[in-house]
Amino acid sequence: MAHIATVEREYSSVSKRRTSKSANGTVTIEVEREEHEEIKLCHFHELPDWQKDNEFILTGYVRETNSIKKCLRSLGCFNNESINIYSHLIAAISYFVVLLFYTDILCIPSFPSTTFVDYMVIDLYLLGAFTCLIGSSLFHCMKQHSESHSDMWSKVDYIGIICLITCSLISLLYYGYMDHFIYFKVFTVITLVLATICTICVLDQRFNSKNFRPIRAGFFILFSMSAVIPIGAGFSKFGFTEVLQRIQLRFVAWETFFYVVGALLYGFRIPETLYPGNFDLVGSSHQIFHIMVILGSVFHLKAVLGSYTFMHSNISSNSFTLSS
């Protein structure tokens, strides 16, 4: 009869059993218990240097995990990234569901002049919003893996922001200049050139430095504010009252307010810089920025849908004539 030896290696509560047989007939059963450590939150001073991004957020950190599984498990532990993760994850899923199933039901009232392009333009914006929000959520979930992963996912986050800004501008340009298509083409090319320049810049490692925080915020604000060029051209061509309707300027103004205020709070780390430690888990500048981004994206969607309705109503009544 073969001799059986049991070797037990303790790691934790979940076990795996492996059996091996030696040349002399000894059967060895190894029982390994997989490690399932609880996610422990730590203080700012306990972090490795690369994780020390905001010295005014003192507690609630998930320390470097070097494990994708542990990063995903941190989703079940309320920490100082939880609101950042879930706010944009829920919003991203909502936009994606609307994009896949409800664009024609919830977003686009039908006009005789409505075409497939209208669905594409509105879906383009929804896709841009989804890309930005899901990229942001993934970054905040995976950033504690390691320095290299943090750098990689931060670039995904930045490119998502560029996608949102680009898709936002193109969607409004399309309806704002629907009957003067050459303007749409020119301003779209300008937007794509600026988006390319922004992408090249954010892929530069220096852009990822914490010292570049105010510069990052200002960079994205400037790209967003490039919209003043086509809006100014619209004022010159159509007058204030008509531009107000063509691009639903009141909604664009609210969108701008939320984006700019959110970016400024993020860039200057308000309110935690005033009361360090008081906003570690809830109410920090980055969390406020996330909520502001969601609100801004909703107001932009309202602007696009309102612009679509205004333009097609006037085309149907022969007030506007489409040009190529």
UniProtKB/TrEMBL annotation:
GO terms for MF: metal ion binding; signaling receptor activity
Membrane-topology descriptor: Multi-pass membrane protein
Transmembrane segments: 83-102, 122-142, 158-176, 182-203, 215-235, 247-268, 288-311
Cellular component terms per the entry's GO annotation: membrane
Record bears the keyword DNA-binding: no
Gene Ontology biological process terms from the UniProt entry: intracellular zinc ion homeostasis
Protein name from the UniProt record: Uncharacterized protein
Native species: Vanderwaltozyma polyspora (strain ATCC 22028 / DSM 70294 / BCRC 21397 / CBS 2163 / NBRC 10782 / NRRL Y-8283 / UCD 57-17)
